[in-house]
Amino acid sequence: MIDPLVRFVTWFDEAEAHAGIGLHEAMALSTVGPEGRPSSRIVLLKSHGPEGFTFYTNLGSRKARDLAPDGPAALLFWWDAMDRQVHIEGTVSPVSAADADAYFATRPRVSQIGAWASRQSDSLSSRADLEAKVREFEARYDGGDVPRPPFWSGFTLTPTRIEFWTRGDARLHHREVYDAAAGTWSTSLLHP
Ligand SMILES: Cc1cc2nc3c(=O)[nH]c(=O)nc-3n(C[C@H](O)[C@H](O)[C@H](O)COP(=O)(O)O)c2cc1C
């Protein structure tokens, strides 16, 4: 059996190389809030490997508030031009402060300032307020490095189930699912 994480890397790299795919690393992240309300949004996959799938965000955002330690979440890639979809389910844990610092340091300065200025998902009284915040943090860090805000970090989703979907003729799509429920990966096919 192919390791599903190896298979993911093959598909991800093929999507990256495909001229018809813009943001191959864009994925829908679905979470469930404390009252059982589901929500989805696009985030960017920033690293992946045996440890799982890592993305970064504001820790006060709706998605981050939904992600209880070891709580469930799902990721979905759709690579239109390749007729491929990957659906990943698992549990989420915070990345280390060192990893978050290292990634934050690679971000463009405007994104670093934006991370300080935005209280992501909170209500915003006016665009002008946000722009004033940006100017405030530009002035604060003028001439120096921008440190990572304490309210901005990442999460790694450790997969427990990965489905690889390929479009088939007459809607007879190919669905191959890998499940780690028994502690080791097993694979099976699903009806389309
Ligand atoms: C292409 C694309 C990439 C995005 N990447 C991220 C990201 O990596 N991290 C992030 O927090 N938000 C990202 N966003 C914004 C989110 O979709 C979302 O609007 C924001 O995180 C607030 O979501 P929430 O209120 O559900 O927490 C991205 C949006 C798009 C369209």
Provide structural commentary:
There is one protein chain. With 192 residues, this protein is an alpha+beta fold. The protein has one domain (4-107, 150-190): Pnp Oxidase, Chain A (Roll). The protein has helices at residues 4-17, 62-66, 97-106, 109-117, 127-140; strands at residues 26-32, 38-44, 47-49, 52-58, 71-79, 84-94, 152-166, 174-179, 186-190. Strands 1, 2, 3, 4, 5, 6, 7, 8 and 9 form a nine-stranded antiparallel sheet that branches. The longest helix is centred in the N-terminal third of the chain and has 14 residues, at 4-17. The relative contact order is 0.18. It binds flavin mononucleotide. The site of flavin mononucleotide (FMN) has 16 residues, from strand 2, strand 4 and helix 2.
Task: Write a brief structural summary.
A hairpin with a 2-residue loop joins β3 (47-49) and β4 (52-58). α4 (109-117) packs across α5. The model has no long low-confidence stretch (mean pLDDT 96).
The low-confidence runs, each spanning 5 or more residues with pLDDT under 50, are: none
Largest beta-sheet details: 9 strands, antiparallel
Helical run tally? 5
Hetero groups in this structure are: flavin mononucleotide
Distance between the termini: 21 Å
Mean pLDDT across the residues is: 96
Question: Could you name the CATH homologous superfamily?
Answer: Electron Transport, Fmn-binding Protein, Chain A
Order of helices and strands: HEEEEHEEHHHEEE
Number of domains: 1
Principal-axes geometry comes out as: elongated
